[in-house]
Request: fold
Amino acid sequence: MSSYWHPFADSHAVTAGGELSIVRGEGSHVFDADGRRYLDATASLWYCNVGHGRAEIADAVAAQMRQLESYSTFADLTNPPVQVLAERVAAMAPVPDSKVFLTSGGSDSIDTAAKMVRRYWHLRGEPGRTVLIRRERAYHGMHTGGTSLAGIPANAAGHGPLITDVVEVPWDDADALASTIFELGARAAAFFCEPVIGAGGVFAAPPDYLAAARKVCAEAGVLFVADEVITGFGRTGEWFASGRWDLAPDLMTCAKGITSGYLPLGAVIAAPSVWEPFFAEGAGMWRHGYTYSGHAAAAAAALSNLDIMEREELLARAVDLEATLTEALGPLAQHDLVSEVRSGVGVLAAVQFDPSAIEADPALPRRAVPALRKNGIMTRMLASGAIQISPPLVITDDEVDELAAGIGAALDDVG
Reply:
């Protein structure tokens, strides 16, 4: 038995069945310790946008580490790659003159945003605004704040009360959001929204929902927080999904694609209306931050990653892949085990097992993962009972065909 405690795992099952060691990656594929090759259908965990094995990023990180691996950025300290990265990300943000608060990952970014929201209202003289609003099916990381904001009940089960000032609204009903904010009155602080729900099942918002929800928040004076941990940095064909749908969020969380996972890094991007009270005379110190906020080598990885994305025009490639994925995966909806294929918004898709099939065979999703691996596809099951599809943005059209064929063969096997 390994000493490693796996995240998001049935530890007894892992102990009984053994581990699978991934030892190498190249482009859109990864290889296990026995040399078996798999198409990486998930870009690891939604993040490897530029693909695996990019020596350019490794070289940039090594060069930075030889000069300065990192140093704390608390108080007035900084370092060159962090300064350059913050300016670059702020220039990409949908709201001009934004500020960039760096974290170590997506869960850090969500908890930072939750604290930033409450501190904002405190500075504005309304400390009673503490209630955070989430959507059904939402996933916002697994720190205390993110677990409390989980619209996936299983993710919060068994942990007891965490942050209690959280309310849930339907994932697709802006009128319900407006009613909830009205009922909360002067207690409503912020609405957390994934432009495309990710781990909850890859659900794109209904037409006009995002614009309507943004308008509701703006008119009610409630902060709109766009969770772009998955959708940021090209996955929907823009640097941020908020830009694609003209959301102009008050706060935006990101991670994953900022470095393509080559080193852990996340950020919270704050519009001027939010950051200005923190920077005002008399605001004092905001006692929040992380040991690795502004990690120099992580920032170097991000800068090299963004260079690749720009040079290889991966935003435009993501737009092309939106249609390519939809065309290739569409026929899978006719399979007896499948109720629908959700696609058509960026490089994101899900092949949904029919609920009646899962009811007849509750082990179906669990059996699907090894069948997919047997057919050369590395992926996982989402909370909705769907196969996750979010490959690297460098995936070729031939590899998309490989992906669809492998999933089809696996469905036949489990059927």
